[in-house]
Amino acid sequence: MSKSTAGQSNGSKLNGGTAGRVVLIGDAAHASSPMMGQGGSMAMEDALVLAESLCSTRQAKTAIEMFVARRKQRVDWVQQQSRAVGDMLGMPPGRRNSVLRERGQSAFMVASNR
Ligand SMILES: Cc1cc2nc3c(=O)[nH]c(=O)nc-3n(C[C@H](O)[C@H](O)[C@H](O)COP(=O)(O)OP(=O)(O)OC[C@H]3O[C@@H](n4cnc5c(N)ncnc54)[C@H](O)[C@@H]3O)c2cc1C
């Protein structure tokens, strides 16, 4: 698990939570800072994708590899966004507001396509 401080985490890496036939999901696999409010949803998504992966093959190792491949992009994105929101909230209000004015809408449009 990576270093974390109150309300901020650098986030652990999803594929660091596997060992043979064992795989971690949810916060144990990829805790992130709370800024996106996505931790509970991510844990449920993990469970669903892992169940689908296990149903699609008789090989546990293959299923776990499929699970990691399917989840990695989303987990990485949520961790990055969560960190970015935390960084933005730490900015002086004047700078934060001008960033939001210039980039807020485009950031939202990118986010809504994920
Ligand atoms: C204040 C706060 C607000 C949040 N708000 C949101 C939100 O708005 N939206 C959102 O999506 N997420 C939110 N989250 C994050 C969300 O709660 C977590 O991401 C989510 O609960 C992770 O689920 P999990 O099943 O991975 O882990 P957990 O919910 O932590 O479950 C792990 C379970 O394992 C048990 N356990 C631990 N060790 C052992 C052991 N040795 N033996 C047996 N059992 C054990 C624990 O008691 C616990 O019940 C918030 C979190 C906090 C703290």
For the record, the CATH architecture stands as 3-Layer(bba) Sandwich
Helix content: 55-70%
Overall geometry comes to: elongated
CATH topology: FAD/NAD(P)-binding domain
Task: Give me the strand/helix succession.
Answer: EEEEHHHH
Largest beta-sheet details: 2 strands, antiparallel
Which spans of ≥5 residues are poorly predicted at pLDDT below 50?
Answer: 1-10
Sequence of strands across the biggest β-sheet: 1-2
- What is the CATH superfamily? FAD/NAD(P)-binding domain
Summed over residues and divided by their number, the pLDDT gives a mean of 82
Give the oligomeric state. Answer: single chain
Rg is 16 Å
In total, the number of domains comes to 1
Structure ligands: flavin-adenine dinucleotide
DSSP summary: helix tally: 4
Report the strand count: 4
| CATH domain class | Alpha Beta
Distance between the termini: 26 Å
What proportion strand?
5-15%
